Amino acid sequence: MKHPAQWTALLTAAALSLTLTACTGTTGQTSGDNDGNGGETYVVGICQQMTHDALDAATQGFKDALTEELGDAVTFEEKDAGGEYANCGTIMDGFVADGVDLILANATYPLQAAASATGDIPILGTSVTDYATALSLDDWTGTVGGNISGTSDLAPLDQQAQMLNELFPEAKNVGLLYCSGEPNSVYQVETIRGYLEDMGYTCAQYAFTDVNDLSSVTQSACDSSDVIYIPTDNTAAANTETIANVVLSAGVPVVAGESGICSGCGVATLSISYYDIGYTTGQMAAQILTGEADISTMPVEYAPTVTKMYNAANCEALGLTMPEDYEPIG
Questions:
Q1: Nearest Cα to 159, choosing from 310, 308, 316?
Q2: What's the rounded Cα separation, in Å, for the pair 268 and 250?
Q3: Are 75 and 169 contained in the same domain?
Q4: 287 and 194, same structural domain?
Q5: Structural domain of 52
Q6: What CATH number is attached to the domain comprising 166?
Q7: CB contact at 8 A, 235 and 247
Q8: Who has the most CB within 10 Å: 28, 188, 301, 303?
Q9: In angstroms, how far apart are the furthest CA atoms of the chain?
Q10: In whole angstroms, what is the distance from residue 15 CA to residue 7 CA?
Q11: Whose CA is closest to 189, among 239, 236, 138, 149?
Q12: Residues 221, 242: contact at Cβ < 8 Å?
């Protein structure tokens, strides 16, 4: 039988052992030196609204930038919502339950769902056209505040209107084709309509609810339009083949808000690089995770450049020749 003094010594040693174990635990840390960040590790949840080229490029740019900054210290939980807002909410609730360190909300639905799910975990949006519209913010100053910031995919709408006018000065009627369920599409259509009407065009809005009525609404737009404009709309981007089958048969050209839509069903676009805005978002994420920046004071950032581009195959099919300063979509 051990004496009390012996029990005291054993308990002291055990307590010391537990203390040392706790200090060298693996929660939030790694024993390796490959992360280059003093042992800290981070888990980033990525929710992408749906699969199409533009959103895919933004996600890839984000991951590339964050991996370049933090190396093996960052891992990703990637989820695709399949275009459904309800799925976005479920995914965000999962990220919150998992205690991820940061959330990337790729497009408007994920941003709205993330904002509803947490006020604590940092949220960065990308491929979001207008944060004030998406988050119902008044007195927009360029900074969301709280736990949200990110990048915008908005190309200058006045310049897009000017491009349409440059290419189709003789057109009279412009059809504005978009998904009624996407707030940022509604914002773009209403904004560019003002510019186009100031130029003398007669504009009509053609809103589809989802892929089920996309073909019929597109046909209605073709029946009454000389040219169609499609904004940076995720549902349109994921279903360009459906649109192309209608507009090319009808001989109606489409000016698109971004290159992904243009490559599928358009003839020309004034487009940003979605990879670039995703990359910028990844750089912002690295600053937030390492404590170099406070997300509440980070302004929303925009693509530094836009490019005039054209779809050579669709232009040929419609007998159109683009000006020399337009680049072919690769």
A1: 308
A2: 17
A3: no
A4: no
A5: 42-152+273-299
A6: 3.40.50.2300
A7: no
A8: 188
A9: 104
A10: 12
A11: 236
A12: no
Calculate ∠ Cα 216-247-232, nearest 5°.
Answer: 85
* 187 lies in the same domain as 251: yes
Query: Does residue 105 contact residue 125 with C-beta atoms inside 8 Å?
Result: yes
Q: Let me know whether 55 and 110 are in one domain.
A: yes
The DSSP secondary-structure symbol of 211 reads H
Q: Which amino acid is at 25?
A: G
Burial (CB < 10 A; 0-12, 13-18, 19+), residue 162, is: middle
Is 125 domain-assigned? yes
Is residue 110 within 8 A of residue 82, CB to CB? The reply is no
Burial 146-158 (b: 16+ CB within 10 A, else e): ebbbbbbbbbebe
What pLDDT digit, counting tens, does each position of 168-190 carry? Answer: 999 999 999 999 999 999 999 99
Q: Over the stretch 286-302, which tens digit does the pLDDT of each residue have?
A: 999 999 999 999 999 99
Phi-psi region of 211 (alpha: psi -120 to 50; beta: other; left: phi over 0): alpha
